[in-house]
Amino acid sequence: MPRYLDRDHNAAINILKKGLKYLGNHLNGTVGQTETGASHLCNEHKYLVEK
Question: Where are the domains of the chain?
Answer without folding.
Answer: 1-50
